[in-house]
Amino acid sequence: MVLMVFVTVFAVNKNHEEVEKNYAFEKQLEEESKQAFLKAYKVFMHPRCVNCHPAGDAPLQGDDSHIHSQNVKRGIDGKGLYALKCSNCHQEKNIPGDNMPPGHDIWQLPPAHMKMVFEGKSPRQLAEHFMDNEFTGFVNWQEDLIHHVEHEPLVLHSWSYGTRPPLSHEEFVESLKEWIEKGAALPD
Amino acid sequence: MLDEVKLKRRSFLKTGAITFGGLVLGFQIPMACSKKQGMNLKDIAYHAPNAFIKIGTDESVTIIANHSELGQGIYTSLCQLIAEELEVDWDKIKVEHAPIDPAYNHTQMGPIQATGSSISALSEWTRMRQVGAAARMMLIDAAAQTWGISPSDCSVEKGVVKGNGKSLTYGQLAEKASELEAPDLESIALKDPKDFKVVGKPIKRLDTKIKTNGEAMFGMDASVPNMLVAVIARPPAFGGKVKSFDANTALAIDGVKHVIEIDRGIAIVADGFWNAKKGRDALKVEWSSGTNGNLDTPKQSLAFAKELQSVGRQAEERGNLKEGFGKASKVFESEFEFPYLAHAPMEPMNCLADVKEDSCDIYIGTQMPTFDMLTASHYAGVAPEKIKVNNHYVGGGFGRKSVLDGHIVSEAVQVSKAVGLPIKVIWTREDDIRGGYYRPKALCKVKAAIDENGNPIAWEHHIVCQSFVRGTALEQMLVHDDIDHLAVEGVVHTPYNLPNFKLLWHETPNEIPCLWMRGVGHSFNAFTVETMIDQLAEAAGEDEYSFRKKLLKDDPRSIETLELAISKSKWGQTLPSGHVLGLAIHSSYGSCVAFVVEVSLENQWPKVHHVTAAIDCGPYINPDAVKAQIEGSAIFGITSAYYGELTLKEGAIEQSNFHNYKMLRMHETPFVDVHIVESDKVMGGVGEPGVPPIAPAIANALYKLTGRRISKLPFDKKDFV
Amino acid sequence: MIEIDVNGKKHNVDATEDTPLLWIVREQLGLTGSKFGCGMAQCGACTMHLEGEAVRSCITPLSRAKGKKIVTIEGLDKSLSEPIQKAWIEKDVPQCGYCQSGQVMSAAVLLRENPKPTDEDIDNAMAGNICRCGTYQRIREAIHIAAKSI
């Protein structure tokens, strides 16, 4: 009886340790996932990214993310309005020279029906948004998000002019992959 | 009273028809009278003869404008003055830019052809009407002689002379009229202003059509055969010089033809602007930084603060300052900082020079043709009378195209002379913003007090800034008793009743080139005075309007302007939540302007919703032109208050183009509602007087929103957090 | 030689492909209505229509303009230029006038796409054109007037 009790207690203790260990591992994964997102978050909130994901309907400009001087507006399709359409100045390529309009084949804000606002979002809010297909327009958010940041030309273009984001594009993609692989934990 | 504005020099009207089939009428001024001691204008001869008006046998009426059209509407105003007396169909009138001739000299500024200081209308108020009247008299005489009747039996309307049941048009009479003697000035009777049909009316501008279809020719648009384009590499730091350069990298660019060192830098000459600019980008040049290479804004501000501690030079004194402060119940002391500002006219500086063996043609849009001519003469090594200045529409001036040292022309002339071809020098916007000739930086300090009755009792005012007219041809005209009028204007002889008053000027060295910018010294001095007055009003427990009215009671012009602005504004009415009104008034250039601005804070930044303006400029030629100038002045002043700041680092300006030297844009622009005081006082200007009072009006409103007095321009976001 | 179509006319121009359209039109074609103001798409004085859109020709390289339909202030269709010019005259809009070609070209796109613009629409179309003389309020009023006759 005494022995049994002992054994039982031992078994229970062992099981508990396992659980504890698993729990610690998951905790660590979750923490690493969060950290990976926080790393990527610095890129999302960098002017090269956030400037075209503004809270309002006007794009932002420059390293201080000020509202676009020319009062450019999103428009229905995200491509500007009237005499101030994005592509009037932002052409297929960056114009050489400091403070000249950068450019790319596609140059636009997210459209009016899906504004994908980054500006002012906390890491947690942003991570939640990425999981919301209404926010992103993705079908399978995990695969689509990785594909988007890995291959979307406009994302890649952020590393081609002005002050570059704080991570390299590879590091950025790796961070997001890590976030998702480790459980897409929501930052605190 | 109006006709007190007389031609200051002996002059007479003269007809001519040398190469022109028709009547040509202008003033001829004896050479001896075109000289004034100390103006360095000696030994000048001019092209002659020249006219103000040409009436063609084809019924054309051409008016030769001796002031430059910078947007202020002077071409239309000059034509209105002539047309009023000439009795001609308005639609037939065409305008030409005047060449250089003493006949075209300013009547108020001395023997120069110039446009500035908001004084063109006053310059021509009498003269142009005399020209119109003289031409009409001669055309009537011609008709009367043809019909063998007395001129008094003839009548005239819309370019047709009638008499004895017959009629002849001006075109038909032009040839005959040109053979007649011009009337004596004394014999010309001008219309009573109450009979004006054209002057004082909102006649449409003559240049709108060509300014909306691309036809208007600005200096930038001039070209001649075989012309090349030059872009100049100038030293980045003021006072810098070329140490060494390698032309080969520039010459390797397609289209680059020459690389030439001139006194102000290195000219890259190419077949067009783009290649010249690429050549400049490729040019390898080493600069010496010169004496100002260490200059930066924080250091300079310290030097200004130190200068403020110096004794200074007294510009004005009334009463006894010490006694005044002795009676004070409350004393206030504030310092105000103002930065260098660039005029930034939309048309960057440019000049086309064609230096030939014994002559030189200049194509430019300029406010100062006489100095441009003298410069061209000097650098081309050609006599002044062989210089032809072809003036153009000026794509914005604001003072920047009224240069005292001829630097714009000098570059083009030097390069053209060296290359032996016509050369157009084009400045980029970066060249303009970084190239100097700014509104000077200033530091001001006011110590003021009110007595126990709330009346100002003492006012000590210090102004620290440079004098850009030192060493120029205009020093004698503008610096008196060692006080530069442009530094102290707007404070000196203030219409405010400020007993026990002392004004001191502390002159700083001319470290970087400065120039008059729209509003000149008033542009900062009005801010200091008007925000300080608001502060005193508050301390006195009075509202800003009645406090000002009390202090301005001896100046009817100010009172009427103030009352009109208030009555047309929402003063005393309930405003939308978060909105406040601010008030300022200032007299300059012979006029008085008051603004009431409606302001709120949006996204921690001032939003000006509405501006009510009143101006007393005395008699006006075109009320709509007056309104346009006040509207534009308000925008000009708000731009400076919001964004205007140039900073120095290592002797060079840090800003470069409109992305970091911003201009107000459509969506930031309030509606400016302008009202004119109907006035028979002396004529004042309208181009500049609207600039000085706008920024203090906004600052006074902002105080009501933030509880903080603004003592530095431009506004700082930190002031609104 | 590069062929461009300006105001319905084909021109062969001799320039490198990076040359901005503005300088080709001004210096080689002699159409000086489009102005140089900033060289970096800040001021709008150089605005032309490229396939109908209000591009800033000071930063539009020849390579982009090649084979496209370009319209300058001199060639703006009468259906737009006439009502706009009439309204500009009615309100006495221009002062120095240097920016006005660009203002007209921007207003033309606005009115073509939105014949009854509100004040906000005008802000959203015209804030890319700087006027140092400050004629904005008259431009606004003139656009409303032009809208009535388009």
From TrEMBL, chain B:
For this protein, the record's InterPro entries field holds: Ald_Oxase/Xan_DH_a/b, AldOxase/xan_DH_MoCoBD1, AldOxase/xan_DH_MoCoBD2, AldOxase/xan_DH_Mopterin-bd_sf, N-heterocyclic_Hydroxylase, OxRdtase_Mopterin-bd_su_IorB, TAT_signal
Q: Which domain of life is it from?
A: Bacteria
**Residue spans crossing the bilayer:** 12-31
Pfam annotation, one family: MoCoBD_2
Q: Which UniProt keywords apply?
A: Membrane, Transmembrane, Transmembrane helix
Q: Which residues form the Aldehyde oxidase/xanthine dehydrogenase a/b hammerhead domain?
A: 213-291
Name of the protein described by the UniProt record: Xanthine dehydrogenase family protein molybdopterin-binding subunit
Source organism per entry reads Belliella calami
Automatic annotation (TrEMBL), chain C:
Q: Which residues form the signal peptide?
A: none
Q: Which domain of life is it from?
A: Bacteria
CDD domains per the UniProt record, alphabetical: fer2
Which Pfam families did the record assign?
Fer2, Fer2_2
Q: What's in the keyword line of the UniProt record?
A: 2Fe-2S, Iron, Iron-sulfur, Metal-binding, Oxidoreductase
- Please report the stretch or stretches of sequence annotated as the 2Fe-2S ferredoxin-type domain: 1-76
Tell me the protein's name. Answer: (2Fe-2S)-binding protein
Name the source organism.
Answer: Belliella calami
